[in-house]
Amino acid sequence: MTTESFNGGWAVRPKASIFAQIAGPPEEAVPVTLPHDAMISMERAAEHGAARAYFPGGCFEYSKSFDVPEEWRAQRVQLEFDGVYRDAVVFVNDVAAGQRPYGYSSFVVDLSPYLRYGEPNVVRVEARSHDDSRWYTGAGIFRDTRLIVTELVHIGWRGVRVTTPDVDAERAVVEVAVDVRNDGLSTETVTVEVDIVDDVGLVVASGSAPVTTRAGGAAWSRIRAYVGEPRLWNVDDPQLYGATVRVRAADVVVDEQHTKFGVRTLRLDPEYGLRINGETVKLRGACVHHDNGILGAAAIGRAEERKVELLKAAGFNAIRSSHNPLSTAMLDACDRVGMLVIDEAFDVWTESKSSFDYSLSFPEWWERDVEAMVLKDINHPSVILYSIGNEIPETGNALGSELGRLLAEKVRSLDPTRFVTNGINPFVSTIGDFAEQLRAAAGAAGDDGGVNDLLGRFHDEIAGSSLVTERTAESFGVLDVAGMNYADARYALDRELFPNRIILGTETFPARIAKNWALILGNPHVIGDFTWTGFDYLGEAGIGRVQYTDTSRSFAAPFPWIAAWCGDLDITGCRRPASYCREIVFGLRSEPYIAVQRPEHYRRIPTDGAWSWSDSIGSWTWPVEPGTPIRVEVYTDGDEVDLVLDGKTLARQTVGGSMPLTAIFETEYQPGELSAIAYRNGSETGRTTLRSAVGATSLTVSADRNVLRADDADLAFISIELRDATGTLVTSEDRQVAVSVEGAGVLQALGSARPDNVERYDTGEHATFDGRALAVVRPTAAGAITVTVTAEALEAVVLTLTAETPPRRRAS
Fold first, then answer.
1. Cα-based angle 549, 551, 557 (whole degrees, multiple of 5)
2. CATH 2.60.40.10 in the chain, residue ranges
3. Cis peptide before 25 (omega within 30 of 0)
């Protein structure tokens, strides 16, 4: 068996029908390397709507020519897609060979019946996206592709499944199930061999068994191996093993796969909550969308890995894929880095939320799409829960709950080793019952914020109502874990009403983390919290922005807003103030953090935004006159804070007035050194300092790594910052920067975290935001890559990166 990346050598263009091509030639195709997002380079406009970040939809055509040798005539050739958004149709030599409506499902297309041997062949993929989601989806072949060539007797696609059904300190039972397929014309008896290898490649257990398959048939072989003194996988020590599986006919190995897995145990009960390897774990969770900020929806391996690394560094130990299955690349990263995963199947079942969404395909395709998710996840130790949906209206209906039962049982039939949840929003489950009174309340307040804004204002009284208790009981009853969106009002209530119910806050308001975390620590049946959101994302533009009483209130922000602006990390990966406060809540940070509200809004009165934080940044450099009034927030686990400017105490404030774990100071801006000193019971617990930028500004450029792999999965993330001579970030001025790349790489994207951005991410120029921008460079071959960064009136900076040929990947 050979499995090779099929990401190179593609071209993409807008799809033109055969009739349109009669009138004139189609648009020229542009060469691309997958994963690729065809939407991110399109022109945005106000008429396209805030949900999709004001990007238009479209239909796109990808094509690739590849050589097919004669020897493949006696082999099986397949093409694997990790995800095509969406309504994909795959053609081979202009003949339809496969289809997949759901944009997030992996699937495989059998190419053999359509190939022409000994000559070039063409694969063409159509993808279309139009008013089919509530967020920015991107479009096209946005995840990896792989070409798989096997002998006629071979391991089936995703045909190696590793479980560890019995684990203790002395040994772990590792069961390897192997799907052996025979596409030949005669009965074959082969031997399946399994080697279990540790993280340095030493064989620690092995086993083998014969298996006979009929012509055109298949059989499962199950081999149990025993690993002595197993090293267990967990978030703090993500130990991975490998299972090398060989299918041997006589003395010839006809197929071989290598699969990574982890040894760990999961237990669940209302007294101890979630236990991993016997230890209770509270999930410090982040909801994440699938886009990668300025890269759009392209799920390039290094971008997925970096997202996981940054979230873990910010204090999270778990992510929830919102609201669709994760890419294989991100699951691999979670395994390596040590991040727990709730992988979520759908945002809709039969009730639509957008005009042309997946609900149109759900009745016919849900079972195959659940299979695709579970079979992708089953060998990943990071995955601990499957979620069968998000805010599904059917969950408040008895017959609608039957769908949840079918989904949950389908998941369990495929993988009984993990737990099942569902992100149930009590408001959405009963929306028909409450709609009229909520409309009346909104009308009386002159509010046009829409359903999500109403949710923010009335969630507590709705979530805790007896109607919700009754209407959601059956839907919660089919789950192992009751996933609750914005329903912290039920945490303590359900401990009495449903003593066997285990609860997870699958989606929560960011500003409620201190209150929610106290509930989680105080209630063993509540196993964690997943904030909306960990990483900012494109689409649902402006839902987390601060709004003020002097302007009309709305859920979505007007054009040119592009980002939701509700993430702990912005779309370039920089931490925002909420992230540091959350880290203190989690007990992972003792040093106080200073956040300063933007002084231009000082006299305006903010409204309570459900997904907003204060409009603040960690800076004491402002383009205002000395003496300008300004508001300072200090986050701390102390009970008092001194605010000190240039050694002089300005004031001492008690912590926890209007905001938990926060002391708020009203003061005047004076350039200098601003310090916050935290106290508990009169003793200092920590201090931190901000300094004003002074003197000349210079350009500071740094890469996350200087040596890259010369393959389609790697990237270099290059931070571009404006700093003074002492290294202080200059947030008070923004400049246009330009980036050029020469040698063995290309500029994949350039942008900033500005949430109301009119600039594109696919050009070589972009303005900084709060003193920062981010460039992403992608290697194209082995060799040197020269990156030149310039900014107006500043000295240019040149970086040299090196792309090295990676070792050949093993089949997996």
1. 115
2. 153-261, 593-691, 698-804
3. no
Question: In the predicted model, what is the mean pLDDT of the chain?
Answer: 95
* CATH code of the domain occupying 593-691: 2.60.40.10
pLDDT > 90 in the chain, percent: 91
What would the CATH number be for the domain defined by 153-261? 2.60.40.10
- The tokens for 266 are 């999961």
25 pLDDT band, cuts 50/70/90, is: confident
SS3 content of the chain, % helix, strand, coil (to 5): 20, 40, 40
Report which of 577, 594, 584 is spatially closest to residue 644, judged by C-alpha positions: 594
**Residue 346: both structure tokens together:** 């759908």
As a dihedral over the C-alpha atoms of residue 131, residue 134, residue 140, residue 146, rounded to 10 degrees, the angle is -140
- 590 alpha carbon, distance to own chain's centre: 28
- What is the tens place of the pLDDT at every residue in 49-75? 999 999 999 999 999 999 999 999 999
Tokens coding 395: 């969950």
Phi-psi region of 407 (alpha: psi -120 to 50; beta: other; left: phi over 0): alpha
DSSP H or E segment with residue 741: strand 736-743
* Spatial separation of the C-alpha atoms in residues 759 and 319, rounded to whole Å: 30
pLDDT for the residue 775: 98
**566 to each of 453, 486, 789, how far by Cα in Å?**
14, 15, 30
Helices and strands per DSSP (H, E), number in the chain: 12, 45
CATH superfamily of 2-150: Galactose-binding domain-like (2.60.120.260)
Residue 303, classed as helix, strand or coil, is helix
Identify the residue whose tokens are 């997949």: 100
> Looking at the domain that runs over 346-540, which CATH code has it been given?
3.20.20.80
What is the total residue count of the chain?
Answer: 812
Q: Between the CA of residue 733 and those of 501, 700, 720, 771, 772, what are the distances in Å?
A: 53, 15, 14, 7, 10
C-alpha 803/C-alpha 783 separation (Å) is 5
Q: Which residue has the tokens 């934080």?
A: 613
Q: Give whole-number Cα distances, 634 to 162, 268, 393, 483, 782, in Å.
A: 48, 38, 40, 33, 48
Q: What is the token pair recorded at 640? A: 């008092």
First to last CA, the chain: 10
Q: What is the tens place of the pLDDT at every residue in 285-306?
A: 999 999 999 999 999 999 999 9
Give yes or no for a contact between 572 and 753, defined as CB atoms under 8 angstroms apart: yes
Q: Tens digits of per-residue pLDDT, 205-234?
A: 999 999 999 999 999 999 999 999 999 999
Please name the residue that has the structure tokens 């759908």.
346
CA angle 488, 616, 547 (to 5 degrees): 65
Q: What is the CATH number of domain 698-804?
A: 2.60.40.10
Has residue 247 got a pLDDT over 70?
yes
What is the location of CATH 3.20.20.80 in the chain?
346-540
pLDDT of 810 strictly over 60 = no
Tokens of 278: 């016997």
Indicate whether 812 pLDDT > 50: no
**Residue 239 neighbours by CB under 8 Å, 6+ apart:** 199, 231, 232, 233, 262, 263
pLDDT digits (tens, 9 = 90+) for 695-749: 999 999 999 999 999 999 999 999 999 999 999 999 999 999 999 999 999 999 9
217: tokens are 């048939």
Task: Tell me how far apart the alpha carbons of residues 494 and 683 are, in angstroms, rounded to a whole number.
Answer: 40
Residues of the chain with CATH 2.60.120.260: 2-150
